């Protein structure tokens, strides 16, 4: 950490009085708990304590009906004198852009939304009036998810720039489509206002829309119950492993590094087993080989997946790898360092191993057990394309070029092929889609005897 510039007058106002630390960042903080973000109607009807007037059957419903008359007058801007004491904040018409955001998330076209803070139902709460083309309805007739979105969007839209937003389980009572649209709205707020957002969630629909470096995986220690951070960077497919959920494996899959590898697999299926198209498909895992091995491999291995394999580029193959060490090394905690060395020697890195924690650190026995499972699965389910670089392997078979060309050289050649094929100028940027199209054209020249196609078909054959 850099030294604090105590003698710099330009930052003097940002330092504590003792000048040994920076002052805390000053920002607006908004916390919304979706499990408790209930409308005034639901708060009273389902959670308020009984009293002498509501202890009888349907007593609460009767009070809601009576008090709703005053609330309706408030929304109509015709309150009686007694109503005014019940209104804590006047009725507000939400701004047009706020109404549009709510409409987009909920999949309804609202013409207007009103909201009021009141105590007509004894306790303080919010009520909303949602207006559609064919009529209006209050939160009493809306789903709890609908009302929560109204409160959320209204509150967030009113936040100042560079604020901190804390959301606790925003997926509550929202279907997956609405959850994704909610996240799109939140991303817009980040871009427009610089809002920092922290979300606590158990929703795959939300998590799968986030990049790995935004997903922090927390897990309780089974022995103590204490919660700790077990992954600061987590791929969406790994995020719910600890609660028994693995996603993205409905059909038989071949996990690949990029779009070109996926095209090679597709070509192998076309040539060798066209009838299996649709039941076996290549899946591009964001982040390339490093992410595949570090993040996807552990999930598949520890779940003992039998409907997926990995196909890596040839430059990921470690020459002379001795997989027999997985059988000869004792699987006990005192050999943790040895197993981590095995992982590096066989895979090039130590995969994320989802070990249990013990006294604040990962449990050695758990680490070894999981690493052994990961390596055994990898031994049987990781395949490699022929050659070092797929681009170079294709060019070697179609243009008789050097099969040991570097990635940069081979990719540069396909850029020029695409430039010529599509008539682009020398200084024009060549779109990635044009480059991939040029690669597909060359792939179409390969037949069943192609070493590259054969190597891809090994992975296909293993999972079929």
Defining key terms:
single chain, alpha/beta, 16 helices, elongated
Please give a structural write-up.
This protein is of the alpha/beta class and 464 residues long. The chain has 16 helices and 15 strands. A four-stranded antiparallel beta sheet has the order 2-3-4-5. The radius of gyration is 30 Å and the shape is elongated.
Low-pLDDT stretches are none
Q: How many helical stretches?
A: 16
What distance lies between the first and last C-alpha atoms, to the nearest angstrom?
53 Å
Main beta-sheet annotation: 4 strands, antiparallel
Give the C-alpha Rg: 30 Å
Trace the largest sheet across and list its strands.
Answer: 2-3-4-5
Return the structural class.
alpha/beta
Per the principal axes of the C-alpha atoms, what is the gross shape? elongated
What is the subunit organization of this protein? single chain
Strand % is 15-25%
Count every beta strand, where a strand is a DSSP E run of 2 or more residues. Answer: 15
What number is the mean pLDDT? 86
Helix content: 40-55%
């Amino acid at each position: 950490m850099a030294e604090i510039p105590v003698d710099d007058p330009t930052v003097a106002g940002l330092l504590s009085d003792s000048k040994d630390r920076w002052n805390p960042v000053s920002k607006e903080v908004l916390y919304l708990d979706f499990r408790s973000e209930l409308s005034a109607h639901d708060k009273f009807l389902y959670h308020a304590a009984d009293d002498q007037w509501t202890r009888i059957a349907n007593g609460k419903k009767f009070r809601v009906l009576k008090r709703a008359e005053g609330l309706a007058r408030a929304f109509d801007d015709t309150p009686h004198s007694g109503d005014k004491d019940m209104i804590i904040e006047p009725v507000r018409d939400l701004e047009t852009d706020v109404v549009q955001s709510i409409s987009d998330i909920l999949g309804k076209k609202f013409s207007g939304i009103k909201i009021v803070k009141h105590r007509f139902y004894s306790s303080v709460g919010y009520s909303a009036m949602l207006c559609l083309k064919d009529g209006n309805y209050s939160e009493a007739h809306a789903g709890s998810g609908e009302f929560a979105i109204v409160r959320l969007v209204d509150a967030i839209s009113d936040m100042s720039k560079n604020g901190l937003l804390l959301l606790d389980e925003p997926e509550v009572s929202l279907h997956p489509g609405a959850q994704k649209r909610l996240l799109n709205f939140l991303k817009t707020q980040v871009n427009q206002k610089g809002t920092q957002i922290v979300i606590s969630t158990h929703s795959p629909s939300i998590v799968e829309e986030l990049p790995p470096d935004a997903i922090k995986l927390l897990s309780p220690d089974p022995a103590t119950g204490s919660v700790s951070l077990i992954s600061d960077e987590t791929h969406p497919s790994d995020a719910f492993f600890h609660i028994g959920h693995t996603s993205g494996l409905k059909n038989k899959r071949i996990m690949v590094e990029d779009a070109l590898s996926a095209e090679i697999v597709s070509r192998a299926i076309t040539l060798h087993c066209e009838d299996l198209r649709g039941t076996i498909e290549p899946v591009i895992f964001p982040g390339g080989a490093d992410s595949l091995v570090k993040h996807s491999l552990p999930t598949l291995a520890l779940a003992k997946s039998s409907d997926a394999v990995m196909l890596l580029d040839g430059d990921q193959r470690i020459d002379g790898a001795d997989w027999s060490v997985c059988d000869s090394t004792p699987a006990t905690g005192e050999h943790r360092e040895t197993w981590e060395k095995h992982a590096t020697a066989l895979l090039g890195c130590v995969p994320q191993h989802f070990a249990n924690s013990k006294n604040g650190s990962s449990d050695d026995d758990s680490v070894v057990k999981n690493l052994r499972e990961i390596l055994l699965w990898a031994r049987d389910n990781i395949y490699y394309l022929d050659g070092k670089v797929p681009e170079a392997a294709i060019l070697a078979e179609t243009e008789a070029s050097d099969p040991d060309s570097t990635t940069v050289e081979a990719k540069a050649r396909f850029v020029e092929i695409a430039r010529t094929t599509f008539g682009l100028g020398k200084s024009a940027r060549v779109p990635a889609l044009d480059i991939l199209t040029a690669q597909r054209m060359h792939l179409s020249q390969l037949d069943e005897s192609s070493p590259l196609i054969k190597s891809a078909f090994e992975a296909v054959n293993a999972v079929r």
